[in-house]
Specification:
Length: 332
């Protein structure tokens, strides 16, 4: 089926929160990762939340963000028709400077949800910006995710924050009430980019306090954990108990992509690079040499197939960790 709107996405998040499981919201830049994620989710019968940052859209659009978003949104819609699972698209970490682009995305219904990140602003300004996006998206069936607190590290080639600031439970209630958001991203010790799970001081107690405060105030929303690539399996299992329904993954897939490509090209180095003594005659394509490279090895599809398979295997493990396998609302 094609990727679905926010009304359907709201259903799967609410079911996940009731039943104590979550979704690995997966960032991607190009088709190899996307197809691997689709295959994994279909195999595991788990609905899939995809994510695009402005940087990914800019890359896909040859330097133009909205062109990239339109292209990838349509590509997802067409590819998703092959699968029975529900497929959703979230715009990840779009900021105040992107408001005009967000208006286009909302008007053209290019996504199921949008994460507006004004977390580096003062509280009142964060509320104002986030509420503005909520108002423009509500009638279009697009969910809005806001962020409260600051998560350390680098996100999409930009520094998210030099240091972490934990989310305050009391402010969480006020933030949800004043903005009207559908999901709340919280800061409880994770960080963007490369990290080691054993070094993350994950404040599950804080997640519980935030979730309890929202429930007590009748402002319950699904909670989101950014920077989750460094979490260990036991940490993921633990955090699902406290209202976390969406865990963002990006860095892990990037590493699996790079390692798979690197391993392949190291293994096939001598069938692609000319040996010592043979001129590196690319322009003549080695026409004057007895040696020639192996097309089977330098054809991009050769390594791409391996990348897709590795992304699929990785995503299947992560889906199992989030306990969303077999939970699709759409697979009969």
């Amino acid at each position: 089926m094609p990727f679905l709107n926010g009304f359907e996405l709201d259903r799967i998040y609410k079911k996940a929160k009731r039943e104590g499981y979550g979704f690995m919201a997966s960032n991607f830049v190009e088709p190899n990762v996307l197809i691997g994620l689709l295959e994994a989710s279909d195999n595991k019968k788990s609905d899939l939340v995809l994510q695009l940052s402005t940087g990914a859209c800019k890359f896909a659009g040859g330097g133009d963000i909205i062109t990239g978003l339109r292209t990838m949104s349509k590509y997802i819609e067409i590819l998703a028709k092959k699968y029975d699972i529900g497929v959703f698209l979230n715009l990840d970490h779009w900021k105040k400077k992107d408001l005009e682009l967000i208006k286009i995305a909302v008007k053209e219904k290019l996504a199921s949800s949008i994460m507006i990140d004004a977390s580096l602003e003062a509280f009142d300004e964060n509320v104002r910006i986030t509420h503005e996006v909520v108002k423009m998206a509500r009638e279009k069936g697009i969910l809005i995710e806001g962020e409260l607190g600051k998560i350390k590290g680098v996100e999409d080639e930009e520094t998210a924050s030099d240091e972490a600031f934990y989310t305050d439970p009391g402010e969480s209630v006020e933030f949800v009430e004043k903005t009207g958001i559908d999901l709340l991203a919280i800061s409880i010790g994770t960080q963007h980019g490369v990290s080691k799970g054993r070094n993350i001081e994950l404040r599950t107690d804080l997640a519980q306090k935030i979730n309890d405060a929202l429930i007590d105030a009748n402002k319950e929303v699904p909670l989101v954990l950014h920077g989750s690539s460094g979490l260990l399996e036991n940490q993921i299992k633990e955090i699902l108990k406290y209202g976390i329904c969406k865990l963002n993954k990006d860095t892990r897939y990037q590493y699996e992509y790079a390692r798979t490509a690197l391993d392949f090209y190291i293994e096939h180095k001598y069938s692609i690079l000319p040996p010592e003594g043979v001129p590196d005659d690319r322009d003549g394509f080695f026409s004057e040499s007895e040696w020639s490279p192996s097309k089977a090895d330098f054809d991009p599809r050769s390594v791409s197939k391996l990348i897709r398979e590795q992304i699929k295997k990785t995503a299947e493990k992560l889906i199992a960790q989030a306990c969303s396998d077999g939970k699709s609302l759409y697979v009969q």
